[in-house]
Amino acid sequence: MIRHASHEDIGSRLSGRLPNLALSMAGRAEAETLARGIAAEMPDAIQSSPVLRARQTAEAVADACGHGVGIADALEEVDFGDWTGRYFDDLEGDPDWDFWNTHRSQASTPSGESMKAAQDRVRAHVAAMARDYRGKTLVMVTHCDIIRALVAAILGLTLDNILRFDVGPASVTRVEAGDWGARLTRLNERFA
Question: Is the pTM of this model over 0.70?
Fold first, then answer.
């Protein structure tokens, strides 16, 4: 699992599923460094969220690996509904936002998706891919909260605790999965 590389709004705005938010110059450099590191491992396939910044990160990795990119809707960012595109400073103090960040197991975004629904879709996708790619390495480029949701499921953590660990831009979180379930082998790994 790879979190997409940096974009201009990272850390300041809830980008969500904004359609045309591309990687920044720094993000393109992160993606190239990531691509070199991943290419050395010779993955068997690469999938991406349909969101532009994830696709651009996946394309850099795919080019370095000599693969194409398969688009997987299950890897798409959480649908943040009415919060999409809002600045974090503007959301501070909003009781719904505060509830979302402390009770993700219960909260839903306004006119959007619950964290549980996002977790269910990524878990189902990883389980299906474990069957389809048995014994192979699959790279999935997605988003911070999607990776956090999967990690929480693997570790048996409540979704209320997913803000207790970081998943940085262009980081790699490694998961082994099979008929037996899944296990986390590395979290938030960076290539230098």
Answer: yes
Q: Are 16 and 82 in contact (CB under 8 A)?
A: no
User: Is the C-alpha dihedral spanning 68, 62, 180, 147 positive or negative?
Assistant: negative
pLDDT at position 117, please?
A: 97
Rounded Cα distance between 123 and 118, Å, is 9
- Sorted by sequence, the CB contacts under 8 Å of residue 84 that are 6+ apart come out as 14, 15, 16, 17, 18, 112
Which CATH number covers residue 51? 3.40.50.1240
The residue count of the chain comes to 192
| CA proximity to 74, closest of 8, 23, 146 | 146
Q: Find the domain containing 38 and state its range.
A: 2-189
What's the order of all strands across the beta sheet hosting 70-71?
70-71, 45-48, 138-142, 2-3, 172-178, 181-189
Q: How far from each other are the two terminal CA atoms of the chain, in whole angstroms?
A: 18
